Amino acid sequence: MMAAIGAAEQKAKVLLIDKGNKLGRKLAISGGGRCNVTNRLPVDEIIKHIPGNGRFLYSAFSIFSNEDIIRFFENLGIKLKEEDHGRMFPVTDKAQSVVDALISRLKELKVDIKTNSPIQDVHYENGRVKSVELKTGDVYEADSVVVAVGGKSVPHTGSTGDGYAWAQKAGHTITELFPTEVPLTSSENFIKEKMLQGLSLRSVALSVLNPKGKVLITHRMDMIFTHIGISGPAVLRCSQYVVKAMKKWNLKEVVMNLDAIPDMKEEPLFQDVSKKIKEEPKKSIKNLLKGMLPERYLLFLLEQNGIDPSSQGASISNEKIRSFVKACKSFQFKVNGTLPLDKAFVTGGGVSVKEIEPQTMASKLMEGLFFCGEILDIHGYTGGYNITSALVTGRLAGLNAAVSARIV
Ligand SMILES: Cc1cc2nc3c(=O)[nH]c(=O)nc-3n(C[C@H](O)[C@H](O)[C@H](O)COP(=O)(O)OP(=O)(O)OC[C@H]3O[C@@H](n4cnc5c(N)ncnc54)[C@H](O)[C@@H]3O)c2cc1C
């Protein structure tokens, strides 16, 4: 949609073909149905939040940035508001209003829209694009083609990975696809026995460890225990590091470290707990420590460390208190994978960015061919970063597809 608008604004004759019965189905469910259109952090920060080839976007951002996205939508009458971590949402809190605004603009620019029209193939001739062929056999000749068919995640929205074959046919490399921004699975007993299922922890520091126990990445956000493992923002952000670690070291399991009290160091925390016990030695430990952690997690950690939660504080050995405090700061458990690609929020891997012109999104291998959005080997954290990447690359692909078509 963004590419079609960009091209039409350059006065190109544009045909937008989508296989679905409506446009923007994934956008309409993104950001919890509110559409996290973009993010207001400075460009450097945005790039940092796109660990999958974010740096490729520097040139693109210098032409059309997150601030331009904000202006673009405000010009379409979509007022945006900023929430935590710079996340921008429509004030309506409805993703559909963003999709509708894009469709109105497409109509205003008289873009020809064809829905319910799956594309089967893209044809090339003499080193340039020639046409696209629909599943029905209908063929549309074109001087420029922008491939914006997304990745392979959540296929019911239309993104079933069809574009990778068309890119390969043009000579492009598809880097290995993998699920990212995805819940993690675990076969630890406490998960299998659903001891913590449904428990949310706020603002914890969750880390992925390498086989030597060194921290690969830490994310400080919320998380939740599920019936098969862990999920929530901190987990989604850590997920790609788990996938990469499993691949890099050929691991069946990866160790996670959970610090549930990241604002306090271990020793002061131990002193604090000891003081509480000294002040009220006869009180049960679970009541003494009430409020220190969510109750279910507190009871879980006490039991994991061999402490009966109803026992009096003074009756518990110092070693046990120490190991409990250590677990508050560093509870380690193993994860053994992720949900599959179709359940991931985002597809990692895709059309290699080495073969794409960073300022135009043009293929370096085939004249008149452009790529944008999630089909590219670019993946960011949730928080508006993927949508930003799709909108920025879409805008550039559209503008330059129009320019390229004019030259033919
Ligand atoms: C539940 C969910 C929540 C998300 N939340 C966020 C978030 O908060 N922040 C964030 O940054 N990102 C989020 N994302 C990711 C973000 O939505 C995607 O990265 C973004 O939509 C990618 O845009 P795209 O245009 O490249 O692909 P898509 O949005 O997937 O669009 C591809 C389009 O191509 C069409 N198509 C596919 N194959 C064909 C074919 N053969 N012929 C014709 N048409 C075809 C599809 O029908 C579809 O309309 C979320 C994703 C999901 C699933």
TrEMBL record:
Domain of life: Bacteria
Keyword Protein biosynthesis annotated: no
Domain RsdA/BaiN/AoA(So)-like Rossmann fold-like: 1-399
Alphabetical UniProt keywords: FAD, Flavoprotein
InterPro entries per UniProt: BaiN-like, BaiN-like_dom_sf, FAD/NAD-bd_sf, RsdA/BaiN/AoA(So)-like_dom, RsdA/BaiN/AoA(So)_Rossmann
Domain RsdA/BaiN/AoA(So)-like insert: 179-346
Pfam families, sorted: HI0933_like, HI0933_like_1st
Cofactor: FAD
Keyword Magnesium: no
PANTHER family: OS12G0638800 PROTEIN
Protein name per UniProt: Flavoprotein
Species this protein is from: Cytobacillus oceanisediminis
